[in-house]
């Protein structure tokens, strides 16, 4: 059902990125200064898409979990209710989008490249994932919350939503349930 094939490449030690600027210094810095180190330390894996002239986009993924210990009680009940009682646990596996950036040259041009890459990651986790993974998580920058919301991500509880609405935090924890993917 997924209509888009994206020729992504996995970052290698030897790779030298083509020009890239997504408009966020933290994301740009991660790509150029930290992505290989994170990969070498087995903390995250970075994938990218390039044209002959530019790095179009990149994203980094790492393992994560949604856990009772880190969740407010009402949110945790909501998560547990997704599973039959016999499958209740103290945590559920997830993959975290640690970083995601689209080059400014390819933003707001009607291509919806950010949405396409999120859809790609969602389908990829359902169809190609080598381990169990029920959720995708992200600590979204405040300015990216509307983008993630539009793409089906929801706040990890009322506290996260309150933090977003009051501006108490620079990032907001959100998640997407991969069971919502229709293959």
Task: Summarize this entry quickly.
This protein has helices spanning 25-40, 73-80, 113-127, 145-150, 158-166, and strands at 9-10, 45-50, 55-67, 91-102, 135-141, 154-155, 171-177.
Structural class: alpha+beta
Number of helices: 5
As for the number of domains, it is 1
CATH topology (fold) name: Aminopeptidase
Secondary-structure arrangement, i.e. CATH architecture: 3-Layer(aba) Sandwich
Ends apart, CA distance between termini: 6 Å
Topology, number of strands = 7
Mean pLDDT: 92
Q: At the fourth CATH level, what is the homologous superfamily?
A: Gcn5-related N-acetyltransferase (GNAT)
Could you explain how this protein is built, in words?
With 183 residues, this protein is α+β, with helices and mostly antiparallel strands. The protein has a single domain, classed as Aminopeptidase, CATH 3.40.630. Helices cover 30% and strands 27% of the residues. The chain has 5 helices and 7 strands; from the N terminus they run E-H-E-E-H-E-H-E-H-E-H-E. It has a 7-stranded mixed β-sheet with strand order 1-2-3-4-5-7-6, with helices on both faces. The longest helix is centred in the N-terminal third of the chain and has 16 residues, at 25-40. The radius of gyration is 17 Å and the shape is globular. The mean pLDDT is 92.
